[in-house]
Amino acid sequence: MNFLVAGLNYRTAPTELLERVSVNDRNLPDLLLQLQKQLGETVVLSTCNRTEIYTTGEDLDSARARLIASLGGMADLNEDEVSAVAYVYEGDVAVRHAIRVTCGLDSMVIGEHQIAGQVQTALRLAGEAGSVDTPLSRLFHYALRSSRRIREATGIGRSRLTVSSIGVQLVERAIGSLKDRHVLLVGAGETGKLAARTLGRMGAGQLTVAGRNAERTERVAEELGGDWVLRDNLGSAIANADVVISATAASEPIITIEMVQAALENSDTKSHSLVMLDLAMPRDIEATVGTLPNVTLYGLPDLQAIADEHRAERAGAAAEAEIIVNRDVPRFNESLTALATEPVIRALGAHAEEIRLRELQNGFDRLKGLTEEQRSIIESMTKSVVSKILADPISFLRTRDDDEAASAISRLFGLRDEDA
Q1: How far apart are CA 126 and CA 251, in angstroms?
Q2: Most CB contacts within 10 A, which of 107, 122, 123, 391?
Q3: Which residues fall within 8 angstroms of residue 63, CB to CB, at 6 or more apart?
Q4: SS3 label, residue 297
Q5: Residues tagged active-site
Q6: Which domains occur in the chain, in start order?
Q7: CA–CA separation, 128 and 146 (whole Å)
Q8: Could you give the percent of the chain with pLDDT greater than 70?
Q9: Residues sharing a CB contact under 8 Å with residue 322, sequence separation 6 or more, in sequence order
Q10: In degrees rounded to 5, what are phi and psi of residue 52?
């Protein structure tokens, strides 16, 4: 069984292309069902900085071709076009990539803790859609366990940095202290709440949360210590804001140039300047908004410089994490191989034990008058002999993952199908 992954991320593709392949949790179930028909078992991981398709296949060439075609279909690119911007990993390289992604080594913000939750969500949604089977399920569960070990053993996740937190840092560098600033947060999801908590630590003055659902938005605003408005009133809320941070799961921009232009005209301050940060993928704010006078618009690509600073600070921890990842890849393969051959190994052990006990009893029946100590020595000896005989075939099985190896051992030792 071969593991494969194909994807686009912030290093290989422009934002415009990442937007085309981005998929939110609401649309993911339908996509998974479609991809399952094309690929077999499938998991899709789509975040603000990447979209990846994971699958498995016996015929590597065929699986690779179908995987590239599926990714190209999502991006509306032909095979040559998608091959020019996508990465495709197979086998151990794919396993290593899954672990690196899950622990945050492959993130823009190295060691970000939010990615592990996103991986869990991707796996859960694939399970609910019925698109994931045992191999991929085991891979991601293993990657999540490896991620926890890496964070405990290294300093890669210290300070709990996220895309949201470095985005707020970028805003602060642009306008100075946030103490007297009115910040409008558009979106009441996890990314928005992470940004709001960072704003709170930085002493932002007034916070307003804008959302679609009144009950949820009010609850989040109360939790964050701010007030709230519905998205229907977004224009007037922008007019009263110094900073706008948007992080929704909308499939198209919700803040247009006309909306911002009207908000600036209706502002109480004639020379009202506005700093806007778009943390969404696809983008929430039309790119042309950045051309307006007195408006500074930042997006995800603008976070790279700050992310690089933190990457340099965590270089030592990242090197330690890479060592653990390289060690965990063969360990995962061993666990997967053991899973595939375990029924035969159990059947082989049971078969050998049945023979040992039967022959041992025959011997005891013929050897009258043995002491308990003598019986114990003979029993121990028979166990040792059986263990030594089985050592090589069991070792052979645990280093192979093909049906032919298991079948050969079954035939050699006369195991019945129902035993194995």
Answers
A1: 21
A2: 107
A3: 2, 4, 39, 40, 55, 56, 57
A4: strand
A5: 48
A6: 2-160 (3.30.460.30), 163-309 (3.40.50.720), 337-412 (no CATH)
A7: 24
A8: 95
A9: 105
A10: -135, 145
